[in-house]
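Dear colleague,

Following up on yesterday's call, I've attached the two folding results inline so they're easy to grep. Please treat them as preliminary; we haven't cross-checked anything against experimental data yet. The first protein's sequence and structure tokens come first.
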Amino acid sequence: MTDDGGQILRVVAGSEDARQRLDAVLARRLPDMSRARVQALIRDGGVRIGGRTIGDANLRVKPGEEIEVELPAPVAAEPAGEAIPLVVVYEDAHLIVIDKPAGLVVHPAAGHETGTLVNALIHHCGDSLSGIGGVRRPGIVHRLDKDTSGLIVAAKTDKAHRALCEQFAAHGRDGRLMRSYLGICWRAPDRTKGTVDASLGRSARSRTKIAVRSDTHAPDVREAVTHYEVLEVFPVPGTAKGLGGGRSRSAQQLAGSASGGPPLAALLRLELETGRTHQIRVHMAHIGHPLLGDSTYGSGFRASAGLLNPEQAEALQALGRQALHAAELGFEHPETGEPMHFESPLPEDMGRLLTALRGGKD
């Protein structure tokens, strides 16, 4: 322990470390620290070999060398904590899972410097945050849009942050991570199940929007894949009774048969294979089925709102946001390796809209 409350760690290089980069050796031998954190410590003069301060992360290590790493005491978090109520689904020494309400911004940014999930987590977690990057703050691994409700996980340690980031970077393709959402879209896709594979990047028309891009080699364009399943279809009021249990219905029924009536909206289960900004919202708009209440990507469907009956229109107005909820989250615990799985029920505002679309029946 140093005089200012910091900590000194010592690593003796072995034969397997010979001629390896200093930052790589330390990141491997100190699993609680990311390589970026090690590099920052080297830049700040916190790493010594034989009493000599080392400022070069690329220095090649020799077997038998004792490497001394000085960790400063974690500084107070920026931004400050705020006593914002949270629905905690799960918490331990390594991570916390929150059921985020609609309207809560995840991370401070221009126009939202306070009142965010990060502010709330700093206040809630307090000293249990071990100092990610040398600062007592939660490690935000993924984000939800301000007006999307549902499950989100944050790391409380450097090690958990790094491990969870690796899982999210793999996008579930290695079987460790899964994320699914419930969304209500206009009309109904022609098939009960489908995949939208369309790369996303900043819109050329509006820098605040995301758009499907064909110039896939551009530096700001990234692969994006969304899988959807139609769970339920709601006909235009007065045309037919609702079509129940969407898993076994034919494409003809989904498109609107004589017995089923033309579809007004549909409840979807959406699973992310990648996690891009506004991905579900943009992909659903791209295939002609934007989410109800999405004023950014669904403005072309305002006429469809005229088909709603008074109860449905009132429920949609009360929703006041895109009809999207992060309902399931699964990942491998970063410390124990245990599979973790969480579910969140539909919030009241989306539940009310569904009830209205079903003709007043839950």
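Below is the second protein, in the same order (sequence, then structure):
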Amino acid sequence: MLEPKTLQSRFNTAVHYAEYVALAKPNERAGWDSFAARVHLTPAQVALAKSFARRINVLVISGTWCGDCVQQCPILAAIAATHPANASDPHAPGIDLRFIERDAHLDFADHFQICGGRRVPVAIFMNEDFDFVSLLGDKTLARLRRQAATALGANCPLPGAPVPTDEVAAVTTCWLDEFERVALLLRLSAKLRQRHGD
């Protein structure tokens, strides 16, 4: 795994969600905006994300051209927006979510291949010191289940087919589960508990 200083250096060159989506070509941008409008967290999900007691730094390797990114990165942005990190205090609780374009950072992306390929999106979760904590990428379990059911079953949707509302909700839950898992790992970290006195 890459050293924290390498992860931090790449994180510092990455951009926030709005800046990232602005990099999309006009024909790509419509998909991002349309899908973002479909992402809704429940009040319980918002309360959960706001309860995270540690800073979570998340670097997403993405592609503005990628359908899986269009259908997952807005979910990450919605989760992060519930509990934004304080830019002036790197140890304060919150979520700092940033994005890099895979094809412009192949040297970095190659360290995070999944199943031998340069998959996107890949979310790298780090603590406040930029120690690696977790990685979730390509697709969540809910998305893989739906894809397997359609691709391996009797019905195979056309490329670009609409994503059902229940799938959007299930994928949102999967991503939030991973954020919560990371949050609990950080909350229980002996190093961080000593630092924060809790």
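For the second protein, one point worth flagging: The mean pLDDT is 94.

Best wishes,
A.L.
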